[in-house]
Amino acid sequence: MIRSLIPLTALLISDALVLLGHGLLLTLLPVSASLLGFSDFQVGLTGSSYFVGFVAGCLATPFVLKRVGHIRTFAVLASAYTALILFFAWSQSFIGWMFLRFMIGAMIAGIYMIIESWLNERADSTNRGTILSFYAMLNLAMITLAQQLLNLGNVNTLLLFALAGIFLSLSVIPVSLTLALAPTPIKKVSVDFAKVWRHSHIGIIGSIFAGLITGSFWALAPIYAKDSGFTTFQLANFMSAVVLGGALFQIPLGRFSDRFDRRIILIFIALGGAIISFLTFIASFKGFYAGTASTGLAFMWGAFSMTMYAICLAHANDNADSADFVDIGSAMLITYGLSSAMGAPIASAFMSLFGHQFLFIFMGASFTLFTAILIIRRQSHVLPVMTDDNEEFQAIAGMTTPEAYNLDPRAEEINETVPENELKREWADVDDDYHDIIESADTKAKETIPAEALDSKKRP
């Protein structure tokens, strides 16, 4: 494993630095927006803007990479992200924050896409699964650690913004100094929602619910914690527990889904998520909630919510050819991103109307509705793919880009496709062989058929 990762050291260090800065901002920005006087609904809209920007970044980055290459694009995006962080510290305008959050969504999507395409270029059939799993665990570990950085400063000051900017700036150094060759330009994102729907209704429906739930969480959970009276230390532990729960349970639940009908595992996840969400809502009214109870419930909530999308993706690929894997993953990711953008303002409306505790009512209701759909589909639909034929589950790093799906070993047929010019040469050789065979057959026919017979065939 270590031997596979050594050539990628510089890239993985840059990835870790990016995630420390970005992970810190995921929690810092909603809290800072609330302290500026933004309503819960406005905070939700800024979160929605971030997810729309992420989708836009996935679609736009391939065109930039084609023009200037990976290293220059990475440097530009990381530098622009750093500048945007400083603008956050100065701006107090809601419209300004909407624009800034859209831009950082696009920037981080581009950075993810560069890192993931680079990893994909360096991976082969012997280490592809190892690299993807390590990348997923590294991302989740860095986001977990980033939440603890909140304890290093006061959210009312510029210190934490500056710290996030420092990490983003430092991330440029390892990539810029690497001696490794940059990968070839990546292809534009192909989105075919009809293909996903044909292969797996549950895949696309699950992407929608996963987006509604996790999008509202990342946009509004820090506001929920602040309004619940959490200290900064308790807020950091609350957010860390959610990510840690998702990191630790993703592979075990994924392996169970390899052995059993994935729909049963999804029912278990959705039902468990609903129960924990409603328990969290009830506990929100208790004075002890900001202590140990909050961390424990957050851990279990993350175990259910942060694993749902990955298993929905695996279910969609069970019914598809490996040649369709990247297209299906891309369509599901775009669905996930757009539904995340919708989830944040809807959940914030619940919070504005009924109180901050109703964030978990919205998420619990989403889990419950998805559970009902799963049960109905399982009773009325055809039998699932036999577990012996299931595609092996692979961990994914939460919200990623379509390039991560090229890393998955299940997409090897795409990654090992014969180059177009080589195919042309092979077809030319086949064509030459065909003509040689025809000429040889004609010669033998002339030698074996009497001349009189040939002359008689020529007469009218």
Automatic annotation (TrEMBL):
InterPro entries for the chain: MFS, MFS_trans_sf, MFS_YcaD-like
Single annotated GO MF: transmembrane transporter activity
Top-rank taxon: Bacteria
UniProt key word Transmembrane helix: yes
Pfam families (UniProt xref): MFS_1 (PF07690)
Region of interest (Disordered), residue spans: 441-460
Keyword rRNA-binding: no
Transmembrane segment boundaries: 43-65, 74-92, 98-119, 131-152, 158-181, 202-221, 233-253, 265-285, 297-316, 328-351, 357-376
GO terms for cellular component: plasma membrane
Protein name: Major facilitator family transporter
